[in-house]
Amino acid sequence: MTNISRIQQVVQEIKPHIIIHCAAYTKVDHAEKEQDLAYRINAIGARNVAVASQLVGAKLVYISTDYVFQGARPDGYDEFHSPAPINIYGASKYAGEQFVKELHNKYFIVRTSWLYGKYGNNFVKTMMRLGKERDEISVVADQVGSPTYVADLNMVINKLIHTSLYGTYHVSNRGSCSWFEFAQKIFSYANMKVHVLPVSTEEFGAAAARPKYSIFQHNMLRLNGFSQMPSWEEGLERFFIETKSH
């Protein structure tokens, strides 16, 4: 992603109609010490993809994050609230957003949050693994956000790319919970008897600051006529049903 000549070469060879840019540096705590690497991948990489996709006239989907916000609004953030990231990861992703807006004219910036699914590392899989190893787990209870099942995110992206309704969208499952409440629900759906202890962010300890409230409001989806997102509980329940059936 950081080699603009190579990206342009590949994109011009393939000439795609749509590019979905998912590549990112996502190690939130490590980013505090690896600032240049985070910006090189999340900002410069986004710039390079934006330039290349603009050259061939491809629509561009840039996946971003709830961490672009400060986290000071208990009722959450819509797409018209101004970002104010409080860690390097969030700042680098917001820089990527700005490059996309400046350099491309057919873009969808899709901010999502607390993402989980069948593949890759995520909170649900971590809880399931720890639940098999321990009878008791401590989980942060004072960070509140909107969990998102990747299948629901994919469904919305697939709808967006077949339109010309460009802009910035918040795409998460509806509603909110704390990480502590999320963990409790995970073990409930998984029928695992694990005692979950609530702890504060300060007690848990982390190199990077996290938004206290990163709840998403879906104004752009609603204003552009898209259907309401499923609740986070519905998404989690379907995750367990669908992963068991495969």
UniProtKB/TrEMBL annotation:
GO cellular component, one term: cytosol
InterPro entries attached to this UniProt entry: dTDP_dehydrorham_reduct (IPR005913), NAD(P)-bd_dom_sf (IPR036291), RmlD-like-bd (IPR029903)
Pathway connected to this protein: Carbohydrate biosynthesis; dTDP-L-rhamnose biosynthesis
Keyword annotations from UniProtKB, A to Z: NADP, Oxidoreductase
RmlD-like substrate binding domain segment(s): 2-241
Entry's Gene Ontology molecular function annotations: dTDP-4-dehydrorhamnose reductase activity
Pfam assignment, any one: RmlD_sub_bind
EC primary class: oxidoreductase
Gene3D superfamilies: NAD(P)-binding Rossmann-like Domain, UDP-galactose 4-epimerase, domain 1
Record EC number: 1.1.1.133
GO biological process, one term: dTDP-rhamnose biosynthetic process
Domain of life per record: Bacteria
NCBIfam families listed in its UniProt record: rmlD (TIGR01214)
Entry similarity comment: Belongs to the dTDP-4-dehydrorhamnose reductase family.
Function noted in UniProt: Catalyzes the reduction of dTDP-6-deoxy-L-lyxo-4-hexulose to yield dTDP-L-rhamnose.
Protein name: dTDP-4-dehydrorhamnose reductase
Species of provenance: Bacillus cereus (strain B4264)
